[in-house]
């Protein structure tokens, strides 16, 4: 009758169900029975397993959990005896993490920490579970820790049970009242199960775990007989606890004694430090220690027993050095060969403690996407909205940047929500993180000292700035150590010298600042949001606690006028930035939205950073005290002079000012106010057109001075002898002062466009540190000073656009620009001795007629538009094997090149391709550029190309196993015709699409660059007539792709075609494109191909290149080859010879080793030999010729 009554009573209750999870054998007829009755009396729809219809499978209880909105987890001493209780708990935890279930833990005669860490009698029962899968036990342990970590009710047996039950009922009723009765679940959006990326939940899978465990085990090195202590460090939520626990579960079977102490931070807070040794000894020895006199006594008492075996100890979430000291003691109890792992978010705690540290990395994109999907999506899938949700998922993953806990929390928050909710959440994340993420980050923030909290929030204002710059702004003697302390706690990190902050922490910092302002809390405010800032600026009394203002004017809808007293109460203001993130540097329209109609009172003395775009006043307010100012930025301002102290007739003292940027302040004419800036490192005056001269000041620390486009500056005065970088480009300077020689640290001097400069002073030899000298477009500069042997460091010299006739020979030069010089008719014959020269620019040298032999390491030659050039050296350059193999030789629009010159260029290209094929093991090909390319006027394919076709398409058949025969690379050639009336083209590329039929109907495709051209100057010009483009491509990508298609002979799973030795169809299509689109009316007239083989021995560079050289004159040719025909191959090739030339056969041998080749020019040894008879070869054959490409072969014939 009672059951029937209860059943009918339940039907009348509200729909929201409360599920009760408990150990039935222990509590069903006692505590749970009383609790059930109390809940029913209050109309609560309670579900207990006895309510379920008999005969149904136990799995139906999982459905009841999903149908519930609240669950009571009642933990008792024997709770873990029931595996079903534990399975229910895991299910409850999953629903809780998705936000679908509220769990209220009830600790009945057990302590919360015993459940959380599986300690005491409760822990003993759990540890004694037998025949349980390790992964399953880990799941249970995680569920116990997670649920027991929540606020609940504790009953210790000596209190009033009726009151205890009433308190529980009251809490349940309160929780139910917050859930609307008519609430319906949102429609779930799931990914399609055929998506390419697995986003579904994979049971027991922890993404990225395997690799991290392997890396940890490698550091622990169990084979080593010494004791090793390893630190596992990383920011909060990165996965240290998970990794430490999994490492413990993996390695515990290899130790007779092992212990895992979890959540040491919380345990210490709740139970104190003294409990820690007892917990560790209980883990290692299984003994219950009720009273410890001291840590030392504890280990002394058990030292003998501890020494009998090596131990594995894992200490998780250590937050204080004392915890390590207490747990490890003097370490004399640890047997040699033991392993100890300490997981912490503060790297500084491990100093002088650990042997190695392992920084837990962020998840890569693939693992992060999988981890996110595990919580964002259920088992079911729906094809609808797959692409949209997939894209949004990737956006969330990108924002979180591989942070596992944030991915989990975001995923759970989004689970079951519709597409609009996802989009809204993503848009809001940049400004506001979720509460769950804030709670996680708040733990780390709360542990910072007051000073470190301020520094953390200050650094967020200057994210991605240089470390030394931020240290200067912090203006503290301990700034470097304070930055280091935050790095150790993983609140910031330094990368390439810049201080970075994770996006989650950056958003969190901005939220903290705004929250403090909104709550009017005590302490300094940093204002980011434009509405908060405008409120403060309009209400003067609200600015007292402001520490920083960062106003982006693009967010302001209208202009605003400020009261002159606005900043008066801001006595603690340190950082003021008024800027426009979309600032138009050409000043098409005003960017400033701040007006100062009554001027400005600026009685600030704490300000470190002052940045005001388009500052509207003529002078910085005189009441500003710049004694703490570090960085002054007033670009595009209206100021006419830097401040001065009118009362004392002295200039302001600025002892800490290091950076001043006044660029494009077009009214600025007086800089004398900077005379006391003795710490100034950089001064930017670019575009200050009213500046006529520099004051007589001495800024002893100044290293960078920028005077670019100060068009009225006629005289340069040395204001610092420590200058490293000096920009004088676009000024009206006629000459440099005599004391310019004092700039002994000067490394870069830019005088581009100084059109009134007639000569450069003869002090160049004395500028010992000068590495880069730019004299481009100094159109009146005719002479370059005499060069002595003391110039040893000058690497970059730009003389383009000058009228210099004598080219300086400086041995250290790496880049030399001589373009747009009509006075140069030839280069020095000894230019080949410039062994460091890599870049030579000769564009538009219209009087240049001849190019001599070039240096061996030259990678880039641009002779475009040299309209008088008719001949080049043979060989064009010394051939050596270099570490940097990319090279490019441009002869476009050199329309007077003689035929013999183009053949010499072609011959050089062939030699270069042969050399590259030998060096294939030392380089990797690029998809964006060929390893070598050249272009020159011409209408015929070079004779050394084995395959050719008229038009843009070349088709041929590749013999069986063609790619397995030491194939190193291929040379591609296209003859391109440019119409006379072509539209102006700034750039184009010649591309080749190479397709191979791997089996009938299945083709694989490669896109190779052949050559390119771009107009980098201001000259409007097009390519004239027809040009030949040659490019050499490595075959490594082709071979690798074919191996992946099971075509490699070394692959045991060959395809049917490969096993039957079938031929392969190949198709090459050439085209000229502008970025990605084919350019109309530019036609490929002819195309060609030649394969090159490697030597087959990566350690040897010995090879023979056979050439023909004439004895008499420049028209002598190399026309014969030493043909080496492989067995089973036949090459029928006709070599055309010019009978009127007397010929002699010579053999050239090249340096045998890479070391020799890197340092020496190819040594030529000439020995007569008998001419070879011509071999017939059909270039139009549809079968690929590999005999021609044997590595010892070479053709240099001229037609």
Automatic annotation (TrEMBL):
| Top-level lineage group | Eukaryota
Q: Which UniProt keywords apply?
A: Coiled coil, Hydrolase, Leucine-rich repeat, NAD, Nucleus, Plant defense, Repeat
Instruction: Name the SMART domains for this protein.
Output: TIR
List each coiled-coil range.
199-226
Chief localization class? nucleus
Q: Which InterPro entries match?
A: Apaf_helical (IPR042197), C-JID (IPR045344), Disease_R_plants (IPR044974), Leu-rich_rpt (IPR001611), Leu-rich_rpt_3 (IPR011713), LRR_dom_sf (IPR032675), NB-ARC (IPR002182), P-loop_NTPase (IPR027417)
EC numbers, comma separated: 3.2.2.6
One function term, GO molecular function aspect: NAD+ nucleosidase activity, cyclic ADP-ribose generating
Q: What protein name does the entry list? A: ADP-ribosyl cyclase/cyclic ADP-ribose hydrolase
């Amino acid at each position: 009758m009672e059951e029937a009554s209860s059943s009918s009573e339940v039907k009348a209750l509200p729909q929201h169900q409360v599920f009760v999870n408990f150990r039935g054998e222990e509590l069903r007829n006692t505590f749970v029975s009383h609790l059930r009755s109390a809940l029913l009396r209050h109309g609560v729809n309670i579900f207990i397993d006895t309510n379920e219809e008999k005969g149904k499978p136990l799995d139906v209880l999982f459905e009841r959990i999903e149908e519930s909105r609240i669950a009571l987890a009642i933990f008792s001493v024997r709770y873990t005896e029931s595996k079903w209780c534990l399975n229910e708990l895991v299910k409850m935890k999953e629903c809780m993490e998705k936000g679908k279930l509220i769990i209220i833990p009830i600790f009945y005669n057990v302590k919360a920490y015993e459940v959380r860490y599986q300690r005491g009698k409760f822990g003993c029962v759990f540890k004694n579970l037998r025949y349980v899968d390790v992964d399953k036990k880990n799941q249970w342990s995680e569920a116990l820790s997670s649920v027991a970590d929540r606020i609940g009710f504790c009953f210790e047996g000596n209190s009033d049970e009726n009151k205890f039950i009433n308190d529980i009922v009251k809490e349940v009723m309160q929780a139910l009242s917050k859930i609307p009765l008519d609430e319906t679940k949102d429609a779930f959006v799931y990914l399609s199960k055929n998506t390419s990326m697995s986003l579904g939940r994979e049971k027991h899978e922890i993404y990225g775990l395997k690799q991290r465990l392997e890396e940890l085990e490698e550091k622990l090195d169990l084979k080593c007989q010494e004791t090793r202590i390893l630190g596992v460090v990383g920011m909060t939520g990165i996965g240290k606890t998970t990794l430490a626990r999994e490492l413990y579960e993996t390695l515990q079977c290899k130790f007779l004694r092992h212990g895992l102490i979890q959540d040491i931070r919380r345990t210490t807070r709740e139970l104190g430090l003294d409990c820690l040794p007892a917990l560790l000894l209980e883990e290692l020895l299984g003994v219950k220690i009720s009273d410890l006199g001291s840590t030392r006594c504890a280990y002394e008492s058990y030292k003998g027993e501890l020494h009998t075996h090596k131990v594995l100890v894992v200490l998780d979430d250590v937050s204080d050095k004392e915890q390590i000291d207490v747990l490890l003691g003097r370490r004399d109890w640890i047997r040699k060969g033991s392993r100890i792992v300490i997981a912490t978010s503060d790297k500084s705690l491990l100093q002088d403690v650990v042997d190695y540290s392992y920084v837990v990395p962020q998840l890569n994109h693939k693992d992060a996407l999988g981890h996110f999907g595990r919580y964002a999506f259920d088992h079911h899938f729906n094809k609808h909205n797959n692409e949209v949700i997939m894209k949004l998922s990737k956006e969330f993953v990108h924002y979180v940047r591989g942070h596992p806990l944030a991915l989990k929390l975001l995923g759970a928050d989004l689970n079951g929500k519709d597409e609009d909710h996802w989009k809204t959440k993503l848009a809001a994340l940049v400004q506001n993180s979720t509460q769950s993420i804030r709670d996680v980050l708040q733990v780390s923030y709360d542990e910072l000292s007051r000073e470190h909290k301020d520094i953390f929030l200050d650094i967020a204002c200057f994210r991605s700035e240089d470390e030394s710059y931020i240290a200067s702004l912090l203006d503290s003697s301990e700034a470097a150590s304070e930055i280091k302390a935050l790095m150790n706690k993983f609140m910031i990190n330094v990368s390439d010298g810049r201080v970075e902050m994770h996006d989650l922490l950056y958003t969190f910092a901005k939220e903290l600042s705004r929250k403090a302002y909104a709550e009017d809390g005590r302490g300094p405010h940093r204002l980011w949001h434009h509405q908060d800032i405008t409120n403060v600026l309009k209400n003067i009394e609200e600015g007292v606690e402001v520490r920083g203002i960062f106003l982006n004017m693009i967010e302001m809808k209208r202009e605003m006028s400020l009261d002159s007293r606005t900043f008066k109460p801001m006595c603690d203001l340190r950082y003021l930035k008024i800027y426009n993130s979309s600032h138009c540097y050409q000043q098409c329209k005003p960017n400033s939205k701040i007006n100062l109609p009554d001027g400005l009172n600026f009685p600030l003395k704490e300000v470190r950073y002052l940045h005001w775009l388009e500052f509207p006043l003529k002078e910085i307010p005189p009441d500003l005290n710049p004694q703490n100012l570090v960085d002054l930025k007033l670009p595009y301002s209206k100021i006419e002079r830097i401040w001065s102290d009118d009362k004392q007739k002295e200039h302001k003292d600025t002892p800490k000012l290091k950076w001043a940027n006044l660029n494009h302040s077009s009214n600025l004419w007086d800089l004398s106010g900077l005379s006391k800036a003795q710490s100034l490192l950089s001064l930017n005056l670019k575009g200050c057109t009213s500046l006529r001269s520099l004051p007589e000041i001495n800024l002893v620390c100044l290293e960078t001075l920028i005077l670019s486009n100060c068009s009225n500056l006629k005289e340069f005065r040395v204001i610092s002898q420590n200058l490293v970088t000096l920009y004088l480009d676009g000024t009206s300077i006629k000459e440099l002062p005599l004391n310019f020689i004092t700039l002994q640290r000067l490394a870069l001097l830019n005088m581009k466009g100084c059109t009134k400069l007639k000569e450069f002073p003869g002090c160049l030899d004395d500028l010992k540190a000068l590495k880069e000298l730019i004299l481009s477009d100094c159109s009146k500069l005719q002479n370059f000073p005499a060069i002595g042997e003391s110039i040893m460091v000058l690497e970059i010299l730009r003389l383009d656009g000058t009228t210099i006739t004598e080219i300086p020979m400086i041995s250290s030069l790496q880049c030399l620009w001589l373009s747009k010089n009509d006075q140069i008719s030839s280069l020095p014959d000894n230019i080949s001795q410039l062994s460091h020269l890599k870049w030579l620019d000769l564009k538009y040298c219209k009087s240049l007629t001849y190019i001599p032999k070039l240096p061996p390491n030259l990678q880039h030659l641009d002779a475009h538009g040299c309209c008088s050039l008719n001949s080049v050296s043979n060989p064009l350059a010394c051939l050596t094997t270099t570490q940097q193999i990319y090279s490019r030789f441009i002869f476009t629009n050199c329309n007077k090149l003689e035929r013999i010159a183009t053949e010499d260029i072609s011959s050089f290209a062939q030699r270069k391709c042969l050399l590259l094929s030998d060096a294939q093991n030392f380089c990797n090909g690029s998809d964006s550029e060929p390893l070598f390319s050249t272009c020159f006027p011409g209408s015929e394919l070079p004779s050394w190309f084995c395959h050719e076709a008229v038009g843009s398409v070349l088709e041929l058949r590749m013999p069986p196993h063609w790619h397995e025969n030491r194939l190193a690379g291929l040379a591609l050639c296209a003859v391109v015709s440019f119409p006379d009336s072509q539209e102006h083209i700034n750039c184009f590329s010649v591309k080749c699409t190479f397709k191979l039929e791997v089996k009938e109907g299945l083709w694989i495709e490669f896109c190779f660059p052949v050559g390119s051209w771009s107009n980098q100057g201001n000259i409007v010009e097009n390519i004239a007539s027809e040009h030949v483009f040659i490019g050499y491509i490595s075959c490594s990508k082709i071979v690798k792709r074919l191996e992946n298609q099971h075509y490699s002979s070394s692959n045991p799973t060959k395809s049917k075609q490969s096993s039957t030795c079938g031929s392969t169809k190949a198709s090459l299509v050439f085209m000229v494109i502008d970025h990605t689109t084919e350019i109309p009316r530019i036609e490929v007239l002819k195309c060609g191909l030649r394969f090159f083989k490697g030597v087959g021995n990566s350690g040897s560079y010995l090879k023979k290149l056979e050439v023909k050289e004439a004895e008499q004159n420049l028209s002598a040719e190399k026309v014969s080859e030493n043909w080496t025909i492989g067995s089973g191959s036949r090459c029928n090739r006709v070599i055309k010879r010019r009978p009127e030339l007397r010929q002699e056969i010579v053999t050239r041998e090249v340096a045998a080793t890479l070391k020799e080749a890197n340092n020496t020019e190819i040594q030529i040894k000439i020995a007569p030999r008998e001419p070879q008879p011509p071999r017939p070869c059909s270039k139009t054959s549809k079968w690929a010729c590999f005999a021609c490409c044997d590595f010892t072969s070479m053709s240099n014939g001229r037609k």
